[in-house]
# Entry
Amino acid sequence: MDPGGDNALAMQAARSPQLGQPALVALSDGARTPLPAGATETDPPDDGPLYVARQKIYPQRVSGTFRRVKWLVLFITLGIYYLLPFVRWDRGPNAPSQAVLIDFPSRRFYFFFIEIWPQEVYYITGLLILASMALFLMNTIAGRVWCGYLCPQTVWTDLFQAIERWTEGDRREHLQRDRQPWSVDRLARAATKHFLWLMIAWWTGGAWVLYFADAPTLVRDLATFQAPLIAYVFIALLTFTTYSLAGWMREQVCVYMCPWPRIQAALTDEYALNVTYRYDRGEPRASLKKAAALHDRGLAAGECIDCLQCVHVCPTGVDIREGSSLGCIQCGLCIDACDAVMKKIGRSARLIAYDTDVNIKRRQEGQTPLFRLVRTRTVLYTVIIALVGAVMIYTLATRRNDGISIIHDRNPLFVRLTDGALRNAFAVRILNKTLEPQSFVLKVAGLADAGVDVIGSATRSGGDPVIEVGPDQSREVRVLVTTHQRFGPGASVPLTFIIAPEKGGTAASAGDHFLGP
Amino acid sequence: MLGRKKYGPKPPPKVVTTGHEWDGIQELNTPLPRWWLWLFYATIIWSVGYWVVYPAWPLLSSYSSGLLNWNSRSAVSAELAALQTQRGPMMTRLAAASPQQIESTPELLDFARTLGRRAFADNCAPCHGAGGGGVKGYPNLVDNDWLWGGTLDQIGQTIRHGARAGDDDGHQGSMPAFGRDGILKPTEISTVADYARSLSGLPTAPDADLARGAKIFADNCAVCHGAQGKGNREVGAPNLTDQIWLYAPDKKTIMEGITNGRGGVMPAWGGKLDDVTIKALTVFVHTLGGGEQ
# Structure
């Protein structure tokens, strides 16, 4: 990142200090950043308050492109979250029929046609890598897309604010009502709001636990108070967090609790599109009348009429015209608000738009704006996403539905039998990931005359022991390998354990060693 | 926060710094949100709740036990009870089945071996080793040589009543101290030790008098170890013709045994472990590899 970019970020952070900012402001070139007009530079440290109360925000209703996108995202994401547990997926009689299920007691994760065993948790690692790379990519392309549209905190806050506007009125009405003494009407509205909030919060917790057990059964058990205590505990917990975080904490979560805004400031660069007030067009701000007067006198006037609509619709209460800040989640609602005003007064839209500081400076210098989507970092993130995705798809498509793992007995490493033969014992675990019982024929290669016995399995197929494993289960058996061969001191003969499905199919194998004195 | 009482343009934000600056980096002095303070107070109240609900304060002779009456001992009991409930059905089946039935039922065998492995580690491993490999004087349970017999019933009998442990139903009989008690002279002991080695094909010194050794063996040892030296499980006399030695196959160790006698003790576990555990142990030892049918 070039020093100018650094500086710009630092300035952005410094511009909106009331919304919490990094404790240190980095000034890249050692020069003092010009402070905003009227700011006192160095107050004595003991003067200020240690704590400040949250300033309540009354976001105004707004309509437009980005509001529609946000509604769409809200309905899709919440729809998936609330309804997915009820989607059925037939896997036959030996497995649950829930499409998405995290089955802790039997240690399985079901996702439609995919079933993950605990030892395959690296798929989760892959998913996490994909998720973080997707976040990074989003950030390099269009800034805080996650924060503005997709983050659960944003989505639920959005929903809760919509309910607040519906019950207690839009910004003006709500502000007025809050200044009046408590009345039956005001009380009823507040009660309705909190009741609806709690219902949504409760439903949120309820949907959460449905991912961990058969949803229809659990719903019935919950209703009849037959469900396990832990289910009620988690519902209560998520009810509490949803209600308090989306209802009360809101932007405080983004500003004070969430690490992601800080990380994003380090990830972004000067070509990342951000919700930007085009101050080249907007400044100096002037009302319509004042602008006309200025024009009459042959003076310049910007297009911003200082109507504060962008501030009033902001869910986090920032002024986008001060530049992007930690508090700005870049949801684009100020764009909608400004566009509506510009349309009314007959000026062209997008005084606030997805743009970059680079373009503002270019326009000021009479150059054409520059949009660079293909940059080193966007290419790099895309390549990593494609690579990790491809590896995951490949391993998922080619993974076996059986498996074998071996542990050699540690004490004793070998035993001598009465007739002088040598014997090694192994704990062999065989996995059957299919949903039917399977029989495997066990062969041990590596020792010509090896006798192979399996404790607990009397059946044999052509001299080789046969091991039955139940559907979707693993089974550990004790395998004894005996030989009459004589070895020198410290002998270690490589062995290969091969399991072949009795009904046909390719064999799985694992290696170990036969040890002698 | 900034005392804005009516609508209108915001006053310019106030950047408050501590006045410190290092290499152009200034330290901001932004007040914390008020709710942060509330959280701090809430944790204090929460901690008071702990004092009331859980054991907390030491008193003169005991402690404040708390409203829940919780303690780690009862928590362990509760967890053990939960474990018993979980194991209940399988334990009932295990109690009802004979060791032979257990071995022929795969899920019972798996359960018994798992249970047996834990019981073995708790009770048997100190002498027989973690995997039953044994050490000098403590038999290896993985091989197929048995002092007192290797069928399920014989193993169960040995675990339950032990050997030379004072249990009337336990195994009796020990190796006499032929040298210490003056039955055999040191030269005779040396001669018969050579003969004992020759029984399992171990090399002996060129001047060893095996014929005389055979005579001494027939007169003194054969009564327990058998005329062929194949041993006698009734009295726990080891088979001397196989490749397995409880102590060691070198001549010095053999002579030491003949001179001072042998008689390792296996405790009787009948009174100490319950029936199901002994059954699981029996199955576990039998399936280590050397079990006899």
User: Anything to note?
Assistant: Chain A has three domains: 3-40+269-364, 65-121+150-179+188-263, 402-515.
